[in-house]
């Protein structure tokens, strides 16, 4: 893990614990979980977006560890987000059953 990934994982674990209250009971139907997040502060290099990757993987691991099946993942990104307007925002829709 990188230098900052442990704090990113910790943050994502807290987000998943909060999100659990909104998860639908397993009934065979497809349900959604929307996650809002931001890119790294400095995101100008061609590289793995490790903050988003680390945090989203924690959410996906939590869902699967809780017995949910990931059906699909969709996302969009928005430039000029955050307090300074310099961050890229991500909306990630996780479809699960």
What's a concise summary of this model?
Helices cover 32% and strands 31% of the residues.
Describe this structure in words.
- With 97 residues, the protein is of the alpha+beta class.
- The protein has two helices and three strands.
- The protein has helices at 5-19, 50-65, and strands spanning 31-38, 70-81, 87-96.
- The chain has a three-stranded antiparallel sheet with strand order 1-3-2, covered by helices on one side.
- A hairpin with a 5-residue loop joins strand 2 and strand 3 (87-96).
- Helix 1 (5-19) crosses helix 2 (50-65).
- The chain is elongated.
- The termini are far apart.
- The model has no long low-confidence stretch (mean pLDDT 85).
Compile the SSE list and pairings.
Blueprint: H1 5-19, E1 31-38, H2 50-65, E2 70-81, E3 87-96
Antiparallel strand pairs: 1-3, 2-3
Helix pairs in contact: 1-2
């Amino acid at each position: 893990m990188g230098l900052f990934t442990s704090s990113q994982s910790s943050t994502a674990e807290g987000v998943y614990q909060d999100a659990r209250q909104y998860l639908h009971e397993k009934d065979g139907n497809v349900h959604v979980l929307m996650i809002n997040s931001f890119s790294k502060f400095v995101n100008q290099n061609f590289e793995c977006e490790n903050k988003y990757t680390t945090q989203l993987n924690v959410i996906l691991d939590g869902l699967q560890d809780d017995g949910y099946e990931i059906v699909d993942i969709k996302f969009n990104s928005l430039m000029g987000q955050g307090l300074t307007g310099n961050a890229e925002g991500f909306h990630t829709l996780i479809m699960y059953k």
